[in-house]
């Protein structure tokens, strides 16, 4: 490494300019006192470097600089010379050739930057600058000084000279970025605060390209002092000379963290809502909530715990989200190890920890990894059901963190959504269990009715009537089975027809056709009994009593008189000649009644077999 390169990496440096008999600091790099006043003592030989002891203030803690290397810098517009000073902790040989060559190169570059025509009049050096967001130059009226832009809270200003590799920062911008080098620093140091470097600023500062545009853009920055991350919006304009050559960039960085955070949290709530609509279990609901919290609040680990009423000594971390550098916390834990936190959670209190390694809810020691957990701060949100702790959402960070009221409110909102979604899924599962229990009891009831009928009607001489009654019970049970499988909400028409008719004759002897139609419980029960009656009659007297006979059941949805009707047409073919029944029993009255007073029924008996047409409003057929 050459001495010149070593000088560039000196712990600190500053440039002084003449100011009424004294020298004042114009720009600095590295940790230096806030107020640094340098007495005027230019060396006798303007091109000879001096090795001087540092000022008493610079030799004290925390700076402890041992040597000060002063380099005179002649100015084009001034008779007096400025001074470049490097502060080091060790000794450098100023007489070496590499040292002199390196210093000469640095001195020429600084002299070139300081001799820019800032004092030229508008007539001598007209300056042009671009319109906002475009990069095209516009004519400046007073190029003799930087625009008078004062810092506002959250808005810092900066300036870059083309090809200088330096950036000048305002006080507010230094606060936002945490750059420790003073008001002016190399562009590479400034770029350290950007996780994604701003290549446009780099290219302008390095003089790589003069065809750069600076549209308004947003990006993240990380404070170099406290490592906090924030979002800024950059606006910049280029100033060019009379030849159109860019020579200066001025701009602002506005802190938009609050707006960005609010937007991210709103987006997280929308994504969470979409995710909760797709979950099938309470566990999936709480995991979706943990993922939303980790993303919106920038956590290092987030998850949820389950507290089962049947286990009063343990709780489980079921699933969690964690960054690449952290292990998963999933596992079973002893409640007695976390009694303090659990007492608060059982009272419904949101538990907030800013910075603690003691009394944390999750263990500091992860046994399978064999090292202490890095968690420093966390939030614990309990979920209670009927006064008992059932679940807990948590988020954790590896750095101390002051949780804001907005973050706590966001955690509560996410927890409420997850709890509502989980409760809905649990209620649905409970309802399904109740339906299954009801279906089981109904089957037992119908079986009991059938057994009682057999016992009670054992002495009846008309066995045909007894068998017809039993078969009607079976048809009723088929309709109820279908409704139970659909949770008593609706039953598919074709499925019901197949189940009822298949008990009478092989299903291949039936032609079933029509669009998908769901039936409400009342209509499904009535249709099941009607199809049983029609199928039984066809098997006894009609088409199904002959080997070549066939039955057609066709349904359709038609628009009639400004309403939609469901139409079902039963027709028999290929059977023996039939005649209308002479007496009207239960079956005949059931078919004539159809689906009630809002519908219609037309039953005829041509020689080919029974021909029946039933209609009813579709809305009534699907009503629950």
From TrEMBL:
Residues 215-268 form the PAC domain. This is histidine kinase. Keywords: ATP-binding, Kinase, Nucleotide-binding, Phosphoprotein, Repeat, Transferase. Its EC number is 2.7.13.3. It catalyses: ATP + protein L-histidine = ADP + protein N-phospho-L-histidine. It comes from the Bacteria. The keyword Cell inner membrane does not apply. InterPro entries: GAF, GAF-like_dom_sf, HATPase_C_sf, PAS-assoc_C, Sig_transdc_His_kinase_HWE. PANTHER family: HISTIDINE KINASE, TWO-COMPONENT SYSTEM SENSOR PROTEIN. Residues 115-148 are annotated as: Disordered. Pfam families: GAF (PF01590), HWE_HK (PF07536). The lineage of its organism: Bacteria, Pseudomonadati, Pseudomonadota, Alphaproteobacteria, Acetobacterales.
């Amino acid at each position: 490494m050459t001495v010149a390169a070593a000088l560039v990496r000196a712990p600190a440096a500053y440039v002084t300019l003449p100011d009424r008999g004294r020298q004042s600091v114009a720009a600095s790099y590295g940790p230096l006192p806030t107020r640094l006043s340098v007495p005027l003592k230019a060396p006798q030989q303007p091109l000879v470097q001096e090795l001087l002891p540092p000022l008493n203030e610079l030799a004290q803690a925390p700076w402890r600089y041992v040597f000060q290397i002063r380099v005179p810098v002649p100015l084009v517009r001034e008779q007096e010379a400025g001074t470049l000073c490097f502060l080091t902790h060790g000794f450098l040989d100023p007489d070496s050739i590499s040292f002199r060559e390196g210093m000469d190169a640095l001195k020429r570059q600084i002299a070139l930057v300081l001799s820019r025509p800032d004092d030229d009049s508008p007539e001598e050096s007209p300056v042009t600058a671009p319109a906002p967001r475009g990069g095209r130059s516009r004519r400046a009226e007073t190029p003799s000084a930087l625009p008078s832009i004062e810092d506002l809270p959250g808005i810092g200003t900066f300036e870059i000279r083309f090809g200088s590799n330096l950036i000048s920062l305002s006080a507010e911008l230094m606060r936002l970025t945490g750059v420790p080098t003073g008001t002016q620093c190399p562009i590479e140091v400034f770029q350290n605060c950007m996780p994604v470097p701003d290549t446009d600023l780099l290219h302008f500062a390095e003089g790589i390209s003069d065809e750069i545009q600076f549209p308004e853009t947003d990006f993240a920055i990380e404070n170099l002092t406290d490592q906090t991350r924030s979002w800024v919006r950059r606006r910049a304009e280029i100033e060019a000379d009379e030849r159109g050559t860019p020579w200066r960039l001025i701009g602002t960085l506005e802190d938009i963290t609050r707006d960005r955070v609010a937007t991210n949290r709103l987006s997280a709530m929308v994504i969470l809502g979409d995710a909760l609509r797709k979950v099938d279990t309470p566990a999936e609901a709480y995991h979706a909530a943990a993922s939303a919290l980790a993303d919106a609040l920038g956590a290092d680990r987030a998850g949820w715990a389950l507290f089962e009423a049947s286990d009063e000594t343990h709780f489980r971390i079921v699933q969690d989200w964690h960054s690449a550098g952290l292990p998963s916390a999933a596992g079973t834990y002893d409640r007695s190890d976390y009694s303090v936190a659990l007492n608060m959670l059982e009272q419904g209190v949101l538990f907030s920890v800013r910075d603690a390694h003691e009394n944390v809810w999750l263990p500091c020691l992860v046994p399978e990894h064999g090292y202490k957990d890095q968690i420093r701060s966390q939030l614990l949100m309990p979920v209670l059901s009927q006064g008992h702790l059932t679940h807990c959402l948590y988020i954790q960070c590896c750095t101390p963190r002051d949780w804001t009221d907005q973050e706590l409110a966001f955690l509560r909102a996410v927890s409420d959504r997850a709890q509502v979604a989980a409760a809905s899924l649990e209620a649905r599962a409970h309802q399904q269990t109740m339906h299954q229990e009801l279906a089981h009891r109904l089957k037992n009831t119908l079986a009991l009715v059938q057994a009682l009928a057999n016992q009670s009607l054992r002495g009846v001489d008309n066995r045909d009537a007894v068998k017809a009654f039993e078969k009607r019970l079976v048809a009723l049970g088929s309709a109820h089975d279908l409704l139970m499988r659909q949770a008593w909400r609706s039953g598919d028409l074709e499925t019901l027809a197949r189940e009822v008719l298949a008990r009478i004759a092989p299903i291949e002897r039936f032609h079933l056709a029509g669009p998908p139609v769901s039936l409400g419980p009342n209509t499904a029960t009535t249709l099941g009994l009607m199809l049983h009656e029609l199928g039984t009659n066809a098997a006894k007297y009609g088409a199904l009593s002959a080997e070549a006979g066939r039955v057609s059941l066709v349904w359709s949805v038609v628009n009639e008189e400004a309403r939609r009707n469901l139409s079902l047409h039963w027709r028999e073919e290929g059977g023996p000649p039939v005649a209308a029944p002479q007496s009207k029993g239960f079956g005949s009255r059931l078919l004539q009644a159809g689906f009630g007073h809002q519908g219609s029924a037309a039953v005829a008996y041509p020689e080919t077999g029974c021909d029946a047409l039933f209609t009813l409003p579709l809305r009534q057929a699907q009503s629950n």
